[in-house]
Amino acid sequence: MIQFSKPNVEQFFQTYRISTFAISQDESRLVFSSTLNGKFNLWAMDIGGETGYPYPLTYNDQMCGFIKLDPQGRHILTAFDRDGDENYQMHALRWNGGEPQPLFAGIPPEEKHHFLHLSEDGKRIYYSTNRENPNFLNSRVFDLESGEDRLLIEGKGTVTVICAVSQDEKRFAFVKEYANTHYVSYIQLEDGQEICLTPSPDEVHTSGGVQFLDGDNVIFATDYDSEFAYMAHYDIKERTFKRLCEIDSETVVMLKYHKDSRTVYIVTEKGVQDHLYAYALDTGELKAIPLPVDILEQIVVARSGNLYMLGRGAAKPYNIYRFDGSRWTMLTQNVVTGLTETDLIVPEVITYRSFDGMEIEALLFRAKDETANGYTVFWPHGGPQAAERKQFRSMFQYIIAEGYNIFCPNFRGSTGYGSSFAKLVEQDWGEGPRKDCLAAMDWLFEQGISSRDRLFVMGGSYGGYMTLLLAGRNPEYFKAAIDICGVSNLFTFYHSVPEDWKPIMGQWLGDPERDRERFIKDSPITYLDKMVNPLLIIQGANDPRVVKAESDQLVEELRAKGRDVEYIVFDDEGHGIMRKDNEKIAYARMVEFMNRCRQAKIQVEK
Ligand SMILES: CC(=O)N[C@@H](C)C(=O)N[C@@H](C)C(=O)N[C@@H](C)C(=O)O
């Protein structure tokens, strides 16, 4: 029989990313933002038949923040940033695409818009912006016909964002954010009165995802007085709060209401996987809907009741699906060219005990016997209040096909394991989570999966920070490390984050004056002398979250000491690597770097 050679980096990157999508009101047209031609652009597919063929709508090669189709099919509303700077600015496009037209003329490059809602008649856009209020944001309504742009909600005290609009556009919901684990939703009434949706705004809790059932009733997700967020109801007339639907050990992360059938679609997260349910408002019946993916990124409920979903799985790239009440149809055929799902690796979900007895969940991807090289890549995730989940990553599948195992611990601070667990990283970036990583490495050694000579550490953003901190404090545990846009210095990071993150920095990370000693202890740059393992550092020049200076300062210091540091900067990237040509360069360099380090004799004191 013909023997095919093993897949190379090219093959894994024939898949594309999809970041968001929209469906036309008559469900004949799907518009999505994707790297189908290598860089993010908008694409359309006519899906009146069972499937369609994608055709391009833009050629500006930029990420978009949202897509909204005019209900009468006159135009498309969207927002683009510039090469990863995350300053998404609203634009309109002709229905059949072309050159995007800015909605606001002459605005500065640092202005950004978060779209929320387009009125039923397609005339008014509700959005939040940093214009005139860079730290706390303002929410406004822009009239597309008259050009009037009116202030609705002024952000005061902390970041404040509009999150729902009643059907008659007289009442608005907005959310005040104090931390990733503390945000509170309110309703603004016609007379300007503000009503908190939970019994006490002073209790630390989350409440968000508000949906108006009608002018007087809203549903939302909250963890008020609970470890896991549930669906709650608020009656504005009666001023009453009620728990409506709780699902054991699952966190409600998204709600979508379908008015005609009085059904709420509930998305929950539980550890490394998502779940979907249909909840009947009139009977309280809750039905699980089996999913064709592990992770749900976005759902849209059409007027007909059809569900559209963007999702991915451990061995399934991003795809958009339609659910007609009985079966899912994959509308975008995004697969790894030439491979089947059985050629790809799905992870085992394992648990291990950490230094203080806490149980930690982790994903273990094992390379196939025929390709395994005996080495393992240890991947601390970003966020830090995110989790590594069963989400397709071309990079992972490529590295595994090259023979490496990958291990991803959901250390304390990860989401999906309850509110208290997520809070454990707050103001403790470098101690508890790092010790969870060391306990995971010890577990890998005890199980015979890896050893100190056969382990690499690699991560992005907070994961890059943890990689660098481990390299500085515990270099004897592994051979070499790869940092992708990681924080190197908590003092400079604190001052360089986007202006609208500043109100939450104290709760999230701490205060550089009050917590000076801890900032020094938890900054990787404090440990230059011990940072002796070879390092590969990758950075986007336009990253607004972890700015390039974070990588520059570390590279400069280490090179001055004569250390083995490779440094790659992508001029057209922001926080992470999004463009396919850059992905191929970066991931091929990672594998080359690890292959080189495997051969080299590296002396780290054990
Ligand atoms: C609400 C919000 O945006 N909070 C931010 C402070 C936040 O948590 N951002 C993270 C998603 C993030 O970008 N963190 C970096 C450091 C990362 O690890 O990716």
From TrEMBL:
UniProt-listed Pfam families: Peptidase_S9
Keywords: Acetylation, Hydrolase
One GO term of the biological process aspect: proteolysis
Keyword Hydrolase among UniProt keywords: yes
InterPro entries: 6-blade_b-propeller_TolB-like, AB_hydrolase_fold, Pept_S9_AS, Peptidase_S9_cat
Domain Peptidase S9 prolyl oligopeptidase catalytic: 391-598
GO MF, one annotated term: serine-type endopeptidase activity
Function: This enzyme catalyzes the hydrolysis of the N-terminal peptide bond of an N-acetylated peptide to generate an N-acetylated amino acid and a peptide with a free N-terminus. It preferentially cleaves off Ac-Ala, Ac-Met and Ac-Ser. Also, involved in the degradation of oxidized and glycated proteins.
Protein name: Acyl-peptide hydrolase
